[in-house]
Amino acid sequence: MIPIGDDGRRMPFPFVVYAIVAINIWVYLQEVNAGPGADAFINAFAAIPYDVTRGVVLPPPSPPIPFLTIVTSMFVHGGLAHIFFNLLFLIVFGPAIEFSCGHLRFAAFYLVCGIAAGLAQIAAAPSSHVPALGASGAIAGVLGAYLVNFPFASVRTIVPIGCFPLFVRLPALLVIGVWALVQFMTGFGSLSARAAESRGGIAYFAHIGGFCAGVLVIGLFKIRTVDGRALARRR
Questions:
Q1: What per-residue string of b and e applies to 36-61 under the rule 16 or more CB within 10 Å gives b?
Q2: Of 65, 76, 109, 198, which one is least surrounded by beta carbons within 10 A?
């Protein structure tokens, strides 16, 4: 299931969501423009669990404190599909959470979820030399917050049926719930360090950590309640 929008009521422009989108796109363009040096660019800003746990500092422009790569890694992506789907999920589910939290609180919430995601992935494979990168951990936190606050909101989705796309509206509980179930089952179904660091190239424990953080801390950041029934109605 690929979400393409929700049927929520009109809300103020989500400045932080689109600022995050712009930063991610800008960083990705720097990566693309690096050409043959793209791998070095990624390694400089991605979170490498071995380096973080052992305090290994890479040459500039890598941050002088290895822990900071957990933050910088949230804005680096491994390819066009990687960044496209991450930002799509953020654009679909982020605005309602930004409205619930306010702009500055949402920015803080996003960073907290991203850091929690990075720590979870490092804890799962602390000796891994595989760079962890991407916004998906922080966005998983947004999904967790959306699930808690708007479980019955109507989400417009594309469900591929063979080669044909089926456009349907589904409750967020189903769309996000299925996604979360896959992350937990796949992540905890392969708990060895080797599997945790390289299972299909996907950082499942980053998704799990970010999602759990979003579920648990959204109450600390939320400043207003949005009528979930308004989000559930079809427009």
A1: eeeeebbbbbbbbbbbbbeeeebeee
A2: 65
